[in-house]
Each structure stands twice: as C-alpha cells, then as structure tokens.
C-alpha cells in the first residue's frame, strides 16, 4: 500500500493511537521489510523469519504507546525487533553441537574456494549460517549482532548485559570456532591477508 | 602458560584483522606475524571466508514474501482494534461493570447472596477471577499507555507552538531594539551634520 503523501513518524504513531486502521496498515507497510531483515538474520529458515516478523508486529502493536516522538521511529522499531528476535532465538536454540575445539574433527586440506560460483557461495553462506546456529548461545548471540546485524561492541554489551571485554572475546572465539568447524567440513582454504581489510 | 595466552591474544587479533576492526599500526603488526606463521595465516583465511559467508547470507535477504503484509495484518488487527479503536467507549463500559460488581458485592441482594453461597469454593474460581483481573489490568495498562502517549503528543505540540511564539517575540524584540538604537533616516540629507549619526535631543 503506497500512500501518495508520506506522513511523518510522529503523525503515523498518532494516527495509530487514535485508532485509525489505515495508520496501522501504513505502519506495517513502512516497517515490514526492515523488520523482516532483522528476523531473517536470527531465524533458522525463511518461514521462521516470516513468523518472527509477525511476532515482532504483535509486540509493536502492544508497546506502541511507549514510543517517544523525540526519537526516530525506525530505530525504535528496529530495537523492538532485535529484542523480540533475541528472545525467540534463545527459545528455539537447539542443543549446541560444537561446544569446544576438541569436538571438531580435523579434516584434510580442502579444495580451493571459487568466488565466481554464485551457487557455491550461496551454499557456503547457508552452511556457515547453519554452523552458527550450532554454536553455544553465549557465542552465537554476540556474533549475530556483530557480523549479521552490524551492531557495535558497546551496543552488544548493553543489549546482552555483559561486559565489553567479554563481548569482544566471545565474538573472536565464535569466529575462530566457526572457522575450525568449516575446516572440519572440508571447506577450509588458505588465504593471504589482504591490505584493505582494516577500517 | 604465558605463551598460550599470548597465542590466544594473537588469534583474537587475527579475528579482528579479518573483520577489518584494527587500525593501521596494529594491522601492520599482525600482518607481519601472519607472514611468518602459516597456521595463523590459515586461520586468517578461514575467518575471512566465514565473514564472507555471513555477509553473503545477510545479502541474501532481499525482500519479504509478498503476502507477508496480509499475514501481519491478520495477526495484529484484532489486537489493534481492541487496544485503540474502541477506546473512547471502553472506559465507561469498564467502569460501569466495575461499579455494578461493587454494588452487588456490597449490598448482596438475596438473589445474589444465594448465588454467592452456592458457589463452590474451589481454587478454579479463584484462578479464573485472577485471570480476568489480569486481563483487565493488561487492558488498563494499555489504555494508560495510550493516554500517556496522547498527553505526550499534545504537550509536544504545545511546546512547538510556544517555541514558535518565543521566536516571534525575540524577532519582534530585536526589531524594536534596532529601531530604538538606530537613528531615524533624515528625509533631508543637507540638514544632517552629525558625524556620529546619533539622534540629537
């Protein structure tokens, strides 16, 4: 639903709180995609992402009165979505399979990485996402927030209520564990350090 | 032990380098170490591949399915309506029901008294009452939130208007001060012999 005139965030919330259903339809239309993107990063499957998106909007409809017009509505929606996604992620987590380095079998040196093959990259991405889901939650949660949600370290520390140093060490440990797990699947490859990596 | 800790520290630095989180000097130091340590270099390559995989995964999220909007609305509209659409009629109904219940319990006419005495004193009754009370509390809290938000918006509007008015007043004050301090332009330049441009008494 595309409205000819884009109303402001504050006006939109005001409409919703006044009971205008069109306002809520516009709200859903405006934030459906960014919320779904947050859900997609936390969900195991696209279907889970759809369901999680609905859960987020259920939360939003209930907490809408707590929005303060002084802040950006999009950032507020994203924050609510992330909180709901983290809660859901914790609930659905399976038993961790990759608990320690010792449990990861060594593998032979793998075949070379082929960056041109799109299908292979998609497969690789899906495999890494699956491996990420098998990490212990205390490792995977900060890594999802950092490497999939682009949150900065202080924000992650605040969100997960853990010290900043712990956040950093867990993220580094999560990346190393994923790298070793990937190697164990025969997907490891040697790569030389590039010069354009540092920010 | 110290060596192991140092190795751990360096692996963390390799992770940070692979994620592009190191500044120039430190990145140079880590790269120098990678050049001399094939195992660390391999770890670096693997972490880079993991990062790329995660980036690819995130980039794969393009658009949600087209019917998602309808599903979200189907799931949320009943709650939306119950919370916001009928709220102007909600308080009187709720208050009337509460008042009627209070009256009945207080005066206990014979019929009600008999009905109350015939009620089983089971915990189920208490549970259902508690559940009903919780529902009412939730609704009341939601209503309170709506009222609070409405007041917040109204106050913000008033503040905006006051700020506009204040700006107008400041502008008017400045104009007045300027008029009072500047000399009146003399319609006849020949009669003006005051080099300071001050107004003669």
List keywords for this structure.
heterodimer; A: 199 residues; mainly alpha; Rna Polymerase Sigma Factor, Chain: A; Arc Repressor Mutant, subunit A; 8 helices; B: 201 residues; 2 domains; 7 helices; 79% helix; 0% strand; flat; disordered C terminus
- Radius of gyration of chain B from the CA trace? 38 Å
Measured as a percent range, the helix fraction of chain B is over 70%
Q: In whole angstroms, how far apart are the ends of chain B?
A: 93 Å
CATH architecture of the largest domain in chain A: Orthogonal Bundle
Helix-strand pattern of chain B: HHHHHHH
Low-confidence stretches of chain B: 186-201
For the secondary structure, the number of strands of chain B is 0
Largest sheet of chain B: none
Shape of chain A: elongated
Return the CATH class of the largest domain in chain A. Answer: Mainly Alpha
* The CATH superfamily title of the largest domain in chain A: RNA polymerase sigma factor, region 2, helix turn helix motif
How many domain units of chain B?
2
Greatest contact between two chains: A-B, 71 and 65 residues
Q: Give the overall pLDDT of chain B as a whole number.
A: 73
Q: First CA to last CA of chain A: what distance?
A: 40 Å
Structural class given helices, strands, pairing of chain A? mainly alpha
Per DSSP, what share of the residues of chain A sits in E-state strands of 2 or more residues? under 5%
Strand content of chain B: under 5%
Shape estimate of chain B: flat
Chain oligomer state? heterodimer
């Amino acid at each position: 639903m595309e409205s000819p005139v884009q109303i402001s965030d504050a006006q939109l919330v005001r409409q919703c709180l006044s009971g205008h259903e069109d306002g809520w339809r516009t709200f859903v239309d405006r934030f459906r995609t960014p919320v779904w993107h947050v859900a997609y990063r936390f969900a195991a499957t696209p279907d889970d992402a759809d369901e999680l998106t609905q859960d987020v909007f259920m939360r939003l409809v209930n907490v809408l009165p707590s929005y303060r017009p002084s802040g950006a509505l999009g950032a507020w929606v994203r924050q609510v979505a992330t909180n709901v996604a983290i809660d859901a992620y914790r609930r659905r987590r399976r038993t961790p399979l990759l608990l320690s380095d010792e449990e990861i079998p060594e593998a032979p040196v793998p075949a070379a990485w082929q960056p041109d093959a799109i299908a292979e990259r998609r497969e690789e991405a899906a495999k890494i996402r699956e491996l990420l889901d098998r990490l212990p939650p205390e490792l995977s949660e900060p890594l999802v927030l950092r490497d999939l949600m682009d949150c900065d370290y202080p924000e992650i520390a605040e969100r997960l209520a853990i010290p900043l140093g712990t956040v950093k060490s867990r993220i580094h440990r999560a990346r190393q564990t994923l790298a070793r797990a990937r190697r164990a699947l025969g997907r490891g490859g040697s790569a030389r350090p590039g010069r354009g990596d540092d920010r | 032990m110290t060596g192991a800790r140092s190795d751990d520290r360096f692996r963390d630095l390799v992770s940070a380098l692979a994620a592009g989180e190191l500044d120039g000097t430190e990145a140079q130091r880590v790269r120098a170490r990678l050049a001399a340590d094939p195992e660390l270099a391999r770890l670096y390559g693997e972490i880079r591949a993991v990062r790329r995989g995660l980036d690819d995964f995130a980039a794969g999220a393009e658009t949600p399915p087209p019917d998602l909007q309808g599903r979200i609305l189907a799931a949320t509209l009943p709650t939306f309506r119950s919370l916001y659409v009928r709220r102007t009629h909600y308080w009187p109904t709720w208050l009337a029901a509460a008042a009627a219940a209070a009256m009945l319990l207080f005066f206990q006419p014979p019929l009600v008294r008999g009905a109350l005495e015939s009620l089983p004193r089971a915990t189920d009754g208490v549970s259902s009452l508690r559940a009903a009370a919780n529902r009412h509390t939730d609704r009341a809290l939601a209503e309170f939130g709506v009222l609070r938000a409405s007041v917040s918006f109204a106050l913000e509007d008033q503040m905006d208007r006051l700020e506009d008015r204040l700006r107008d007043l400041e502008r008017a004050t400045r104009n007045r001060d300027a008029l009072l301090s500047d000399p009146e332009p003399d319609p006849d330049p020949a009669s003006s012999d005051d080099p300071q441009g001050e107004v003669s008494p």
